[in-house]
Amino acid sequence: MNTSFPTVVRAAIVLLAALSFHSCDKKADSLVQPENGRESLSNPSIKPQVVSTVPSNHATGPFKIYAPGPTSNEPHFIVQFNKYMNVASIKELTVTCDGFAYPVRVRAKDYYYYYWWARGSAPPSNPGSRPGTAGPFRELIEFQIVRYPSYYPTLAYEVGKTYTITVDSTIEDINGNRLSNPHSFSFTPEPSFRVTGSYPEDGSKEINMYNSNASLYFNAPVPKAFLSSIHVTPAVAGSWNLNTYDSLSASFYTANQATKWDFDKTYSITVDAGARDARGNALSNEFRSSFSTAPFRVTYTDPFDGGTMSYLTNGVYISFNAELDTSTIRSAITITPAPVGGTVYSYYVNSSSVYLYSGKGFNGNKAYAITIAPTLKEKNGTAFPNQYVSHFVTRPFSIQYASPANGDTSFNRYSNIYIETNAFIDFNSLSTSISISPPASIQWSTGGTSCSSYGVLAPSTTYTVTVLPSFRSTAGDTLAAPYSFTFKTGP
Asked: Thinking of the domain 5-188, which architecture would CATH place it in?
């Protein structure tokens, strides 16, 4: 009984575009041309008329074109014309809906976008035909029904009600022609009380439910007493609660932090036949939806398996689909080979992620493996199911940036020379691994991944700075080759 609403709406639009409506007569069919010959849609000698509607006249639902509920952004109905119609000509009461017990307004989906687009633009030479086309002229127009005076929350159709849509003759086509007469059609979208959907959807596999709530959605408000008709199998400690902002949905909340959906298990959610909505309408058949939860697992790593770490000062980030028993992290998660200076573990209480790094950084041009042993446990005691191994490599220790740039001819002689690397720099290597020619009265200092000079250079002098292969990172790496750049100071 569950429906992926965006999918079915797209399917409905494709159905319209394919012109496969049962309510189209032969005359209407003859007016609609294939994509390579649609001249009739903008022919001023052809008068506009409604070709078809979804739902069709006198149809009984439920229909798959719209998503029931007050937060849906899907269309309530679609009207097809034999001409490109000017959406900007659809004013506040051009299209009306009768059947609701309170005031409503009908609006063309994306009406305001197309209206202002039309005000500032001439009619396009090749108007589109689909509802999603970026232009004000369309043969297929999607409509939404909204509570008046609010223009934001869309409405749910009421159970057992018949609605009548009227398209006023003032709507205009691309040539300024109007309908000869208003067009009306009626339909009964929700003939009976039903469950319109569930989360997780029926048949869902490996859903991460550790901190998630299951939900059910209805086509009518339900009372609190209705909740006793909803069951979860196998049982999970918790309770169903109405979402009071609409009374059209209910969510299941687990009892406490120690009670969660189990990993790697199949659950069923059922609603008893005969359960009644707030107006007394009964559910004709039992509703049943099933889904399976995911195992305790890694959800994300950085670097990813087979990836590359560019900056050797970075760490390894691992995310899980459950909060961890932090007492098991250090013994269960390891990096091989061990980083120089050891591995630092960073996490917090109730964390579902771990960050591993080295105070001295990783070695460059090296292959590492991250191993997670089954001794790792989530907070409630479930053990990691199998050993997990992820691999990454590091880029060589290298210079990323230097200032002044090579070839600079006007460097301020009072400024600092700056060298940036992809690793922590060993201060002890600076005095013997950086040379400047001609010699200058400068000294070098370092902080983290960069080093800079301090001192004054000679005016109008061309200098060459060479970083020798003995230049070293705190992890013990050296440069593969010398790095040089030349510049000239200003006066």
From this structure: Sandwich (2.60)
Collapse the DSSP code of 490 into the 3-class scheme (helix H, G, I; strand E, B; otherwise coil) and give the result: coil
CB of 455 closer than 8 Å to CB of 434: no
Rg (the chain; Cα; Å)? 34
Q: Which backbone phi and psi does 427 adopt, to 5 degrees?
A: -60, -35
Sequence letter at residue 471: F
195-293 classified as CATH 2.60.40.1220? yes
Cα separation, 324 vs 307, whole angstroms: 25
More reliable by pLDDT, 391 or 26: 391
Place of tokens 């020379």: 417
Tally Cβ neighbours within 10 Å of residue 214: 24
Q: Which amino acid is at 490?
A: G
82, 47 contact by CB (below 8 A): no
Q: Which residue has the tokens 């022919």?
A: 43
pLDDT by residue (tens digit) across 60-101? 999 888 877 666 778 899 999 999 999 889 998 999 999 999
Q: pTM for this one?
A: 0.73
List, in sequence order, every residue forming a beta bridge with 133; answer none if it has no partner. Answer: none
Q: What is the mean pLDDT of residues 255-260?
A: 66
Q: How many residues does the chain have?
A: 491
- Listed in order, the ranges of the chain carrying CATH 2.60.40.3710 are 298-394, 399-488
In contact, 443 and 455? CB cutoff 8 Å: yes
Distance (Å, whole) CA 350 – CA 318? 15
**Residue 490, by phi and psi: left (phi above 0), alpha (psi -120 to 50) or beta?**
beta
Name the architecture of domain 298-394.
Answer: Sandwich (2.60)
To the nearest 10°, report the CA torsion of 10, 16, 18, 23.
150
